[in-house]
Amino acid sequence: MIEAGSRKGKVEGQTDFARNLRRMRENRNMSRHTLSECCGLGHTMIGRYERGETEPTLAALAKMAQYLGVSISELTGM
């Protein structure tokens, strides 16, 4: 759902992390399933992170950032 008056593409409840994760994963032509397997996460977790339903642990953030070749700061938008 696009919020009225918000930036284009911003989904209500979605964090910078959620948007960044999806963008970075898609830019690498990587499926959610592949990323979750490479990071040792449950197969549904990447989708839940991308929808902003839950936030990852620091350990999960570190694994995803390492696999995507970015810093945790870049991944979280901080």
Structure description:
With about 80 residues, the protein is mostly helical. The chain has five helices and no strands. It has helices spanning about 15-25, 30-40, 45-50, 60-70, 70-75. The radius of gyration is 12 Å and the shape is globular. The relative contact order is 0.19. Residues about 1-10 have low confidence and may be disordered.
SSE arrangement:
Blueprint: H1 16-27, H2 32-38, H3 45-50, H4 58-68, H5 72-76
Please supply descriptive tags for the structure shown above:
single chain, 78 residues, mainly alpha, 0% strand, disordered N terminus
Helix tally equals 5
Q: Percentage of helical residues?
A: 40-55%
Pairing-aware structural class of the strands and helices?
mainly alpha
Along the chain, the helix and strand elements come as HHHHH
The total strand number stands at 0
Low-confidence stretches: 1-9
Round the mean pLDDT to the nearest integer and report it.
85
| Content of β-strand | under 5%
Largest sheet: none
Rg, rounded, reads 12 Å
First-residue to last-residue Cα separation: 24 Å
